[in-house]
Amino acid sequence: MGMTVVQKILARASGLPAVAVGDVVEPRVDLAMSHENAALVVNQFLEIYRGTPLPPRVWDAARVAIVFDHRVPAESPKTATNQSRVRQFVATHRIERFHDIRGDVGGICHQILPENGYVRPGAVVVGTDSHTTSHGALGAFAFGIGATEMASVWALGSVLNVEVPATIAVRVRGRFRDFVGPKDLILHLIGVLTAEGANFRVLEFGGETIRSMSTSGRLVLCNMAVEAGATAGVVPADEETVRYLREEARVSEPLQLVTPDTDAAYERTLEVDVSDLDPQIACPHTVDNVKPIAEVQGRKIDQIVIGSCTNGRLDDLAMAARILEGKKVASATRMLIFPASARIYREALERGYVATLMNAGAVVMNSGCGPCLGVHEGALGDGEVALATTNRNFKGRMGNPRSEVYLCSPAVAAASAVTGAITDPRDGGR
User: Are residues 293 and 344 in the same domain?
Assistant: First the structure.
């Protein structure tokens, strides 16, 4: 019996000729990522060496990446102190893949890793963030772990007791209609699967629509795979993966593309035709409470957010600028834009997107995750309603349990900014 992409990756990383679903392995890690929660990892890492004669030593500093993005700039003395401690640790252990709060190399971790070429096809990527699943877009097996487990990775270079997951094949065909795209597809899939429908499984995306999709779109799909309970999402590496890594991430080293065997065994296969897909909205207070836009159109919105690790890339900002060109954000609605990285911010400036968005009344912020989880920049007031391109809408997610959050695509967000209510971009986006 053949193997899926993730089975092949785990077999290689574990030094085994093959693995089967349910096997328990200890794969070597190719990249270990943390953000500000690296402060917790540092504490656990140092605890490993307490009482021993061994000096604390990261197994391979070249395979560790740390990105400040959740609370940037620091919103409190506690955060600032923790960030300072991490900087000291980075310097002591000579971790070069460190992205501090800077206007040249900063950004959101799940954008920083791909655009800098840190993620390669066939790699095992772990991160102390649930949306580490994003990096499956480049053909890697990428999943989230806790701070204690990451401390072990820093010390040993491997992940202990990983059970080989079953894989659900998602085969997508058809062509998206105008103002409909990857975010609508993944919201639709989460609605079909439910929040627990892919628990401890991998979602492997394939089909003609995926093959023609940009890496940016693939990142959206893999990012939100976890919202269906999946351990990981993955797109088998192909020509688009090579193009992105060569042209945008400037990777020159040889690449090893991992693809599934033709006789790989899948737990189930989902067939999706996007030809007739409408814009989708995830309604409060769960990501799988998904409805076609027609069912919620007209809902008044107080705050709109475009950005996050899900939809803050250049094509997202281009779509928003296209819709808002020559228009104004509704007077009773606030609009916040968070480019996913400093590089994207600069490119958006050069192309005029930032000027268009600001002229429309949007506030363009520094790259960061703060409003997505409600810890920094953009908390909601009691009774307020937000429409966001982020990835979660749990009660209190954007900082206030007495508010509501709807999730959507950048096209829906931009069209709704003009009217101040949830609006179909096919009606208000031209």
Answer: yes
**Whether residue 316 is found in the same domain as residue 401:** yes
Cβ–Cβ < 8 Å for 117, 251: yes
Tokens linked to 291: 């409805």
Question: For residue 293, is pLDDT > 80?
Answer: yes
The whole-number pLDDT of residue 428 equals 60
**Same domain, yes or no, for 376 and 257?**
no
Report how far residue 415's alpha carbon sits from residue 293's, in angstroms, rounded to the nearest whole number: 12
| Among candidate residues 238, 272, 306, the one where a domain is terminated | 272
Same domain? For 290 and 381 the reply is: yes
Are residue 245 and residue 300 in the same domain, yes or no? no
* pLDDT on residue 430: 47
Q: 272, 293, 317 — which closes off a domain? A: 272
Same-domain status, 251 and 314: no
Q: What pLDDT was estimated at residue 389?
A: 97
Q: Quick: pLDDT tens for 149-201.
A: 999 999 999 999 999 999 999 999 999 999 999 999 999 999 999 999 999 99
* One domain for residues 334 and 379: yes
Domain count, the chain: 2
CATH number at residue 344: 3.30.499.10
Q: Which is more confidently placed, 23 or 370?
A: 23
SS3 sequence of the chain: CECCHHHHHHHHHHCCCCCCCCCEECCECCEEEECCCHHHHHHHHHHHHCCCCCCCCCCCHHHEEEECCCCCCCCCHHHHHHHHHHHHHHHHCCCCEEECCCCCCCECHHHHHHHCCCCCCCCEEEECCHHHHHHHHHCCEEEECCHHHHHHHHHHCECCCEECCEEEEEEEECCCCCCCCHHHHHHHHHHHHCCCCCCCEEEEEECHHHHCCCHHHHHHHHHHHHHHCCCEEECCCCHHHHHHHHHHCCCCCCCCCCCCCCCECCCEEEEEEHHHCCCEEECCCCCCCEEEHHHCCCCECCEEEEEHHHHCCHHHHHHHHHHHCCCCCCCCCEEEEECCEHHHHHHHHHCCHHHHHHHHCCEECCCCCHHHHCCCCCCCCCCCEEEECCCCCCCCCCCCCCCEEEECCHHHHHHHHHHCECCCHHHHCC
Domain range for 379 is: 280-428
Same domain? For 191 and 305 the reply is: no
